[in-house]
Amino acid sequence: MGQPSAVADQATEWSFTQRGLHALLYGYTRFYQGGRWERSSVPETGPAILACNHVSVLDPLFLVASNQRIISFLVAQEYYDKAWVRRLLEQTYSIPVRRDRRDVAALLQARRMLEDGRVLGIFPEGGINREETQKGLAWLVRESAAPVVPAHISGARQGRSDFSTWVHRQRPLLRYGVPLHFHPDAHADEVLGATMSAIATLA
User: Apex CA 187: angle with CA 135 and CA 111, to 5°?
Assistant: First the structure.
């Protein structure tokens, strides 16, 4: 675990396309959306699970813009079915997930990513403004021993469509918490409870 990956991670390793995309997202989130964020608490190296509340399609954009490491997300399959969105997601090596069933293949791919010492972005609710947390997070923590970095976004909301959300200026605030380290034998309820509590305290 934690061995160097064959794909880009640190900003110094990014391709020209990845640098350009990051600059574009930074400009959009900082200047168009008027977003603010605290210094990221994602470790500079090694595996980490970045767990954030999910209030709109803007959330992953702010997480990417506020970090100098590639953040790879578990992303609903329907977004990957849109060709132009898929091309953007591929620049962060994100993983498509089927939401109509437990997607074991996606979880195994996410575990391999953490074993390679990378950062995985997860929205524990499993969707925008959902209340039921997903146990895949706890499984990944137990399997990888990666720390969980809690984050919270406020001041943003989902509009009638993704497009209307992107064009509406909302001035979101992103806060980061102290990384959580769990015992390998920690129960799923303990992992999920502590993670969601840490996210809530950042509100």
Answer: 50
pTM for the whole structure: 0.91
User: Domain spanning 11-201 has what CATH number?
Assistant: 3.40.1130.10
The sign of the torsion formed by the CA atoms of 58, 63, 67, 71 equals negative
Single-letter residue type at 174: L
Q: How far apart are CA 19 and CA 197, in angstroms?
A: 34
36-95 residue pLDDT tens:
999 999 999 999 999 999 999 999 999 999 999 999 999 888 888 888 888 888 999 999
Distance of CA 168 to the CA centre of its chain: 22
Task: Return the minimum-mean-pLDDT range out of 66-80, 117-131, 152-166, 178-192.
Answer: 117-131
